[in-house]
Amino acid sequence: MLDAAEQLFFERGFAAVSLSDIAQAAGVTKPIAYRHFKTKDGAYLACARRAQADFAQALVQRADPTQAVREQFAAAADLFYELLETHPERWELIYGSAAVLPAESRDELSALRLGNIETTYALITKDHPDIPKLFAEGLSHAMSGAAERLGHWWRSRPDLDRQHMVDIHVEIFYAAVAPYLDSR
Predict the structure, then answer these.
(1) Rg (CA), the chain
(2) Where are the alpha helices (DSSP H) in the chain?
(3) Is the confidence at residue 99, as pLDDT, over 70?
(4) CA 101 to CA 80: how far, in whole Å?
(5) pTM of the full predicted structure?
(6) Where would I find the HTH tetR-type domain in this sequence (predicted)?
């Protein structure tokens, strides 16, 4: 059902999807969809939770503390843009406009985004325990926000390939953090 819901939200947008639509697309009855998700917001958030958890798990798996800082940034950026390139619907669930969601659901979506920031913070401080904690916290937020905006920009620039985006991403952050991270 999550796959069907994800696809419908991506194709039609949140406002144009109902739980009945999700049930039909998933080949189940409406009562099953209602029992599983309770509300359309619940279906949207379940899709977003799965997308965020999959991304966080992949980020942790791809992290390699034996690599130089620039290569670590490149690997993380490549994963982010790979998600956007191969699963734009999943990226849109997390980073698309949440304005159509009720306040409570927007808060939960914000918490999911914060989960990505916390994963980034954990990776930075694990591999670089001497980095100032406040700097690492700010860096994690800055990286997340900038990556989100760069992702939106890339969606409007089909002339740029993924490697261009990774290179831009790395250059932006490497210059700011190299003095803190390369001193290991």
Answers:
(1) 18
(2) 2-12, 19-26, 30-37, 40-62, 69-86, 88-95, 103-127, 133-155, 162-181
(3) no
(4) 24
(5) 0.76
(6) 1-55
Class of domain 50-181: mainly alpha
First-to-last alpha carbon distance for the chain, in angstroms, is 47
Dihedral through CA 129, CA 130, CA 132, CA 133, nearest 10? 20
Tens of pLDDT, residues 9-41: 888 888 899 999 999 999 999 999 999 999 999
Read off the tokens for 78. 């490549």
37 in Cβ contact with 46 (< 8 Å) = yes
* DSSP symbols for 127-156: H-TTS-HHHHHHHHHHHHHHHHHHHHHHHT
Phi, psi of 98 (to 5 degrees): -100, 10
Is the separation of the CB atoms in 162 and 85 below 8 Å?
Answer: yes
The number of angstroms, rounded, from the C-alpha of 69 to the middle of its chain's C-alpha atoms is 21
